[in-house]
User: Fold this.
Amino acid sequence: MPDRYTINLGTAVASNTGGPYTAVWDRAVVPATGTLRSAWAVSPSVASNARQSTVDIYYQSDAPSAGSNTGSTVLVSPITLVNDSDAAEGTISQAGARVTAGGLLQLRTDAGNIGAQPAFLNLRATIEVERD
Assistant:
């Protein structure tokens, strides 16, 4: 069994529906407890009229309170995508690096001032996890 694995998140279209980092565009279950080692994001189409185009990865534990959204970012700061098809790496925060089996990783975005218009097309993020 490999000591590292990747989790892929993606969405065909993402916008600022609901406000910055509020909409969850994709989620994936963490299959094994471990430490996050890297996170990358890429989109072949980034809105040119946005003052910022950022991607964030949130972690939601597997047993939150009923009806709560206690997810929090795993990155020091969101990943900024400037140009179409540029891949950019995020820095994993020390506090957000641990994940447990059954938790959820979530793809969230902020596109500045463009509202509900599409900000990203075919957005993809990849997270590398080192097993315990």
Q: What stands out?
A: The mean pLDDT is 87. The first strand starts at residue 4 and ends at 14.
